Amino acid sequence: MLDKNITKIIDKVKKINDSCDFCVHEIKLKKKKVIYMYYSSTANDDKISDYLGKSLSLDYKEQKKIDNVFDYLKMTIPNSKLKIIKTYDEIFYYLSCGYTIVLVDGDNKGIAIETKAKLDRSITESTSEPNLKGPKDSFTENYESNIGLIRKRIKDYNLIFNEVNVGRRTKTKVSLIYIKDIASTEKVELLQNKLKNIDIDGIIDSNYIKELLSCGQASFLPRVVSTERPDNVSISLLNGKIAILVENSPFVLLLPSVFADFFKTSEDDYIKPFNATTTRIIRYIAFFIAILIPAFYIAVMTYNMEVLPNLLLTSFAIERESVPFPTVIEVLIMITAYEILKEADTRKPQIMGASISIVGALVLGDAAVTAGIISPIVVIVISLSAVSGMAFSSPDLVNAIRTWRLLFILSACMFGLVGIISLFLVFIAKTSSLEVLGVPYFTPLAPFIKKDIKASIVKQKQNKIKNRDSYLTNNLKRIGDGKWKKYYYYHLYF
Length: 494
Description:
Elements: H1 6-16, E1 22-29, E2 32-39, H2 45-56, H3 60-64, H4 69-76, E3 83-85, H5 88-96, E4 99-104, E5 110-114, H6 143-151, E6 159-166, E7 172-179, H7 185-196, H8 206-213, E8 225-227, H9 230-238, E9 242-246, E10 252-255, H10 273-302, H11 310-319, H12 327-347, H13 355-370, H14 376-389, H15 395-415, H16 417-432, E11 435-436, E12 439-440, H17 450-457, H18 484-493
Antiparallel strand pairs: 1-2, 2-4, 3-5, 4-5, 6-7, 7-9, 8-10, 9-10, 11-12
């Protein structure tokens, strides 16, 4: 509890954390000492003046009319986010959040007024999930703005934001978002318990939450979709998914996420069904090309030459005649070079433009082939695998592809096609054993759900999608008969 003597409160606050941006101002109101304090780095001076100026600048006659200074300030300060605080922990928490704390001598409680400075960037177009059609706005690091971007799309009283503070030191706001009459109650309660049981110093980004929720089952494949697109989150909520919004992070997590979710994009909902379906099929093909084609090339050139036509085999042998390395070493050299170039391209300053990509991909690649270090066919194989792996917007899936590609290469190096087939069966078995909030990762393929399997690959017209996925919710009906209005207003008013 706070002390009634505000001088002691200030002394204790300074003793605990006397930072350079800590500001304290003292005035007298009806002969009582009033102190307001804030962090200049997180608070806005103009807001402080607007909220406190009129209430604290009273003449002698107006001050005589005040019965209780604390109650007067509580009633007259024009701030909708005014909070009453009673502990030192609350003082430091609200100071860090950009609030101004007002203390009155003789009262063992204080008033916290929201005076945040604008420290966030404005709403811009998504950089990690670009699209040609559909909304262009994306989430930012501003927690309230992100909530607003969802609320303006779903104007339903059943849309729930359950907020908890996670992190002993950061006390980061984490909001569990779902539509009450659509989302599974069991999954919501399970996620709530998981969030409440997180014990960690701090949460800086939503990826912290993603890693902590994914603990338990080891897997290279991602099991949580991360998106910075509000329309994607809104669509997922309407389908029965649960979203996790983390303060200071522009990425929102969607659960439960299955394997098929990583082959969909929000743009699929804004283009013709045929085009969306074709694109999804291409992504599935690209996934298997990315992880299998380098291994297949090694297996064929090392162990299983009989699977190739003699003419093609002869052509490959001629191209590799001057290469001094075995096939697997040649492939590994090329993959390593590609990964280095990709990392350099990702981390390079924007001012350098495409110079690294041009020098690396064209000059060095052509020089390596001319020098006889690698063969042209390997350049084609690795390029096809690399381009296929970049057909996905999820960095986690791209990293998983890189890992599985390497595992298949090592397996092909040791056992040829037999090794590839054996590891592929292990891949299927391992992936099938994964679960996300009790939902099998390969749903709706394994377990096979006939009515949901089509929707995971084929994009249907909006008027044909009458039901939600059964593994997400028991409220299956998506398109009704017009009776929803009666149901809505009944529950709204009664």
